[in-house]
Design brief:
Layout: H1 5-27, H2 32-57, H3 65-72, H4 77-116, H5 121-130
GO molecular function: transcription coregulator activity
Family: Belongs to the Mediator complex subunit 10 family.
Protein name: Mediator of RNA polymerase II transcription subunit 10
Length: about 140
């Protein structure tokens, strides 16, 4: 059986419910009857925890190793996420700048080739147009 997040969530909900029952019974303790009920509920809770543990082993885990290290160092994973987004934005801006620079170079090179070698002007125009540029 493939474990899903829905299965794990159902196990967590049942564990929370069992914990609530144990807390309620401990708060309103009425002797031997309550003790037996608490004992049964704790056994049920242990069984649910075992089920959750077994389910968790089969869940797909796709966490970056850097994030795991970040959390193990008692650091806030939200900060990791923010830093990652900032890095991606920076790299995207650099890539955009490079793409714009190459597009500008393509247009300048095409214009200079067309003016320098008039025999290939039509071919240069076709190549520049096919790559998304235009000769001025």
């Amino acid at each position: 059986m493939d474990a899903t997040l829905d299965n794990a969530e159902a196990h967590l909900r049942s564990i929370i419910s069992s914990l609530y029952i144990v807390i309620s019974q401990a708060h309103e303790y009425h002797g031997l009857g309550t003790q037996k009920s608490i004992t049964n509920e704790i056994k049920n809770l242990i069984h649910q925890l075992v089920q959750l543990s077994q389910t968790a082993r089969h869940l797909p885990i796709n966490l970056p190793f850097d994030l795991i290290q970040y959390v193990e160092e008692s650091r806030n994973p939200d900060i990791y996420g923010r830093q990652f987004v900032e890095l991606v934005l920076k790299l995207n801006q650099q890539a955009k700048g490079r793409a714009e620079a190459f597009a500008s170079f393509r247009d300048i090179l095409g214009r200079e080739m067309a003016s320098g070698i008039p025999d290939i002007k039509n071919d240069v125009q076709q190549v520049v147009a096919a790559t998304g540029g235009k000769l001025a």
